[in-house]
Amino acid sequence: MKKQKKENFNMIAVVDYGLGNIKAFVNIFERLNIKYIVANTPENLKLAEKIILPGVGAFDTAMDLLNKSGLRDTLEHEIIIKKKPFLGVCVGMQILFNFSEEGSLNGLGWVDGFVKKFDTSKIPFKTKTPHMGWNYVNPINNSPIFLNHPNPSFFYFLHSYYVDCDDTYKIAESYYGIHFISAINKENIFGVQFHPEKSNKNGLLLIKNFIDLNV
After folding, report:
1. How far apart, in whole angstroms, are the C-alpha atoms of residue 34 and residue 159?
2. Do residues 124 and 164 make contact, with C-beta atoms less than 8 angstroms apart?
3. Cut 0.85: pTM above it
4. Which of 24, 52, 61, 192 is most exposed, with the fewest beta carbons within 10 Å of its own?
């Protein structure tokens, strides 16, 4: 009896570790007619060509859930060893770094840097924190995930903390009392502080650009 050839799934995975707006990403994949998998097992992650890690809420909560999910070791292998393209969103970007002023747990440490709280004394807006709503994003260094985006582009934000890292990794910045890094890239690893899944046509284009990446 002939063995069946293993199918090449060639799909995108959105990591389901209990934190993040999974349904919004699924809606976008379906709209773009992209093959996807909601990855909640290590086997799911292995099937994917590219991986998105969403996140909302606190740094320690995200790390605790990821550590308990049974996904972390496989996720690190697929991203760090196999070099699959990866996109971290909001807290999903922040946990890529070493640690955060928000909590006490170590981050993934895939990118050197840390996460700081906005100094509200420098923010001239009534809302102070969280930084919530639409704000501009200034792409720099011709990153492929911002291909065909206007400069500046507007995206939706919801956060009280921002990443502080070497400018080498910076591919976009925004302003909220200070200029802060709103998108990063290190090799196959990308991260955005804003929510592309809530950012209408600009978010749709960014996710499409990520899906089309060849890194």
Report:
1. 29
2. no
3. yes
4. 24
Tokens 């995206």 locate to: 155
The C-alpha R_g of the chain, in whole angstroms, comes to 17
The HSE-up count of residue 92 (CA atoms within 13 Å, CB side) is 27
Length of the chain: 215
Contact status, residue 210 vs residue 145, Cβ threshold 8 Å: yes
The string over 147-186, giving b where at least 16 C-beta atoms fall within 10 Å of a residue's C-beta and e elsewhere, is eebeeebbbbbbbebbbebeeebbbbbbebbeebbbbbbb
CB of 87 within 8 A of CB of 55? no
Condensed to tens digits (0 to 9), the pLDDT of residues 117-128 reads 998 888 787 778
Residues 6+ apart with CB under 8 A from 202: 149, 153, 154, 155, 196
Answer for the pair 211, 32: CB distance below 8 angstroms, yes or no.
yes
Measured between alpha carbons, how far is 94 from 143 in angstroms, rounded to an integer? 19
Give the per-residue pLDDT at 137: 97
Written as six digits, the tokens of 91 are 């807290």
Q: How far apart are CA 85 and CA 88, in angstroms?
A: 10
Phi first, then psi: what are they for 211, rounded to 5°?
Answer: -60, -35
